[in-house]
Amino acid sequence: MYFKYQKWDSRFERHSDTSPFDTVMDLFQELLTIASGEVSQALRWLTELDEEYHITDQFENFSIGDFVEELKERGYIEEDRDQGMLVITRKTERSLRRRSLREIFDNLAKGAAGHHQTNHTGRGLERQPETRNWQQGDDIANIDSVGTMMNMLRHSNIDQMNLHEDDLRVHNTDHYTSVATVLLIDLSHSMILYGEDRITPAKKVAMALSELILNNYANDSLDIVAFGNEAWKVEIEDLPYLKVGPYHTNTQQALQLARYTLHRRKYANKQIFMITDGKPSCIIENGKIYKNSFGLDRKIVNKVLDEAVKCRRDNIDITTFMIARDPYLQDFVRELSKANKGRAYFASLDNLGGYIFEDYIRNRKRRVK
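Structure for VWFA domain-containing protein, as requested:
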C-alpha cells in the first residue's frame, strides 16, 4: 500500500459548528476505507498525519487518544476478544456507506450544469418539458396549464371562455421502474499496480450505490460480485473490507455468476455494472485455472464475449466502467460492449461515481405517454 502525503486539506479545518470528533472522524473514515476496514492500520496512518500536520493541535484538550476513546464510547469500534484487536461495528459500516453516498453527490453537485442528474429522491414520476394531448386516466397534476390555456383561447372570446377536452395538454413523464442490478468489482492485482489505488474508489461507489438503493429504491435489488481468479458474491455489510489480492482477472466467471443471479430475480429490467481495469487474464477450464497475463489471450477473450452474448439473449445489459487508459484494453471493452449491445464508460477515478449514478438513474426510467 502506498500512501501519498500532501498539503493539508481545508476540508478538515475547524469550523464553529463542527466538533473535534466530527472533524477527525471524516479523515478517519477515509483512511478506514483505504485500509479495508482495518482499524489498527487506519489509526496508524491517522497518527502519522497528526504528527506531520498537527491536526488535533487546533483543538483544546483533544488528542488521537481522546478520539479513539470517543470512537469506543459512540459504538463505532469495539474490541474483538477472540482476535485481540479493535474492529469496526455495524454502525461504522453504515456510516461508511452514507459517507460514500454524500461524497459522490457532492462531486455531482460540482459538475457542469445539466451534465448529471442529482435529484435522486425516489419519486415515481418526473415531468418532462414535452407535452401531448390529455388521455383518459392521465394524472391532472401533470397538466400543462400554459399549453391548455393557449388552446382554449383559440376558440374563446372576451365574454366567454370555453374549455374543451381537446384543449387539455399534459406533460410527458419518466416513470421509475424496478430494476435488478448486479455490481461486479474487479479485485485483481492490477487494481493497485504502479501505486495507483483503483480499488478504493470502486468500493466507495459500491457502498454509495447500496446505500442509495436501500434508502430510496426499496423495490430494486442489488447483488454484488467480486472477482479475481474466481467470482464470488459479497454482502453489502462486507464492502468496507474488500481487498485486492494476488489474483488474475476471471471476467467470464464474473459475468456468468451475475447472469445466474439475475435469473433468480423476478424483474422485467435487469442489468450488470462492471468496474474493472479491463484485461481478462484467466478462465476456469476443466476445473483448473487457465491464465495468461501477457496481452489479450483470444482464448480467454472469446469466452468473455460468449458470456456477453448470453447476457444479451437474456435481455441483461452490461455497462462497463473502465478505469485504465491502455488503448488495447479499451479496444477490448468496446468489443465486449458490441457483443452485448451494452455501454462502456472510460472513466477516471475522480468521476467514476458520477458515471455510475447517472447511468443507474437513467436505466430505471422509461417514458410514459
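Residues 107 and 354 are 7 Å apart (CA to CA).
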